[in-house]
């Protein structure tokens, strides 16, 4: 049987910050014992870590760190987005699928971090494993609606399915004569619109459908009923 070694996804931006620790854990691995994370609803709601102790104490899709406690999100195909501000030494973990991204969860996280002393020009953001444009088919009407929505940055999508040369299993089969949408690109655009420098935003390119360990993708499960498990991504300040 062919064996495909899996990379452990890392962010070189976050790796360079010695005052923090983070991980994009594989699917199915439990969150750190002391992590705070919300009951996620694809909303723009941001809370502090202590609001989610014990975990899932409240409905929220972004959690801001307090002290050295890890803050986490769980995802399948949605974007796990980790924020670190080098000026105020704050961290945040954000769950941003298409719905949450469009509802403004990245903006509301930035707003809250700024009120706590962060600066947009010192924010660093890593976008972790998520469904890639190689496997993320959307109906054309949805893209038309997004293009009509004021204030969104330019969208990236393709009529033809991009071939992913790094895939370790077959890419998603077309289901609806749709388009292939780049969700990480949309998140990057929104972050840049808010003034975060492009060089301080990193997309870890690992598609949960065709590149990550099995059980990573909600959509793969939809197609094959093979089951899926949450992927925890977390970040914390060191003691
Ligand atoms: Zn893919």
Query: How is the main sheet built?
Result: 6 strands, mixed
Question: How far is the N terminus from the C terminus?
Answer: 44 Å
- CATH class term: Alpha Beta
Small-molecule binders: zinc ion
Named CATH topology: CNF1/YfiH-like putative cysteine hydrolases
Helix proportion range: 10-25%
Compressed to H and E, one letter per element, the order equals: HEEEEEEHHEEHEEHEHE
How are the strands of the biggest sheet laid out side by side?
Answer: 2-3-6-5-7-11
Q: Please report which band the strand proportion falls in: under 5%, 5-15%, 15-25%, 25-35%, 35-45% or over 45%.
A: 15-25%
Average pLDDT confidence is 95
Q: What is the CATH superfamily?
A: CNF1/YfiH-like putative cysteine hydrolases
Low-confidence stretches: none
The number of helical runs is: 6
| Global morphology | globular
Describe this structure in words.
It is a single chain. The protein is an alpha+beta fold and 239 residues long. The chain has a single domain (12-131, 185-237), classed as 4-Layer Sandwich (CNF1/YfiH-like putative cysteine hydrolases). 20% of the residues lie in helices and 23% in strands. It has 6 helices and 12 strands. The strands form 3 sheets. The chain has a 6-stranded mixed sheet. A 3-stranded antiparallel sheet has the order 1-12-4, with no helix packed on it. Strands 8-10-9 form a 3-stranded antiparallel sheet. Strand 5 (79-85) and strand 6 form a beta hairpin. The longest helix is centred in the middle third of the chain and has 11 residues, at 105-115. The radius of gyration is 17 Å and the shape is globular. The chain starts with 11 loop residues before the first helix and ends with a strand. The model has no long low-confidence stretch (mean pLDDT 95). Residues 132, 134-135, 164, 167, 171, 207, 209-210 line the site of zinc ion. InterPro entries: Cu_polyphenol_OxRdtase, Cu_polyphenol_OxRdtase_sf, Cytotoxic_necrot_fac-like_cat. Belongs to the purine nucleoside phosphorylase YfiH/LACC1 family. It comes from Pantoea phytobeneficialis. This is Polyphenol oxidase family protein.
